[in-house]
Design brief:
By secondary structure, the protein is an alpha+beta fold. 52% of the residues lie in helices and 11% in strands.
């Protein structure tokens, strides 16, 4: 259990290996740039937006905002992406510390669609294509 999440709620990024990087509301894009500088300096862009896009679409980070949670289940080439076991475990362990009902709903939805897609549930695949 991440003590920072228990105290402050979920706001920031979750890497594929389960590392949680907290940030304040409205500081996501500069935080994304710092993460890219630290983890993949060769991929750094002059645009905070492009750096965040890289983390979400190419690397597979989960983003926690004040209004929800984002996980891109399709990569840049539209290939199916699943939560890693570390991300799944983190979300399951920390869902109770969601900031609000919208974030709780998003996390629950991501976990359920991820599970159903891994199990080959066709309805989940249709939902994913329509809703995400």
């Amino acid at each position: 259990m991440n003590k920072n999440v228990v105290k402050n709620g979920l706001c920031g990024y979750l890497s594929p290996d389960g590392e949680y990087i907290a940030c304040k509301s409205y500081e996501h894009m500069p935080t994304a740039t710092q993460i890219v500088k630290r983890t993949a300096p060769q991929k750094i862009s002059g645009s905070d937006f492009q750096n965040e896009k890289y983390l979400l679409e190419e690397v597979g980070y989960v983003e926690f905002t004040a209004r929800g949670c984002i996980f891109k289940m399709r990569g840049v080439n539209k290939e199916r992406r699943y939560l890693t076991s570390a991300q799944t475990q983190f979300l399951e362990d920390h869902i109770a510390h969601s900031n609000n009902s919208d974030q709780l709903r998003d996390i629950d939805f991501i976990l359920n669609v991820n599970k159903e897609a891994k199990e080959g549930n066709i309805l989940s695949e249709i939902e994913h294509n329509v809703l995400l």
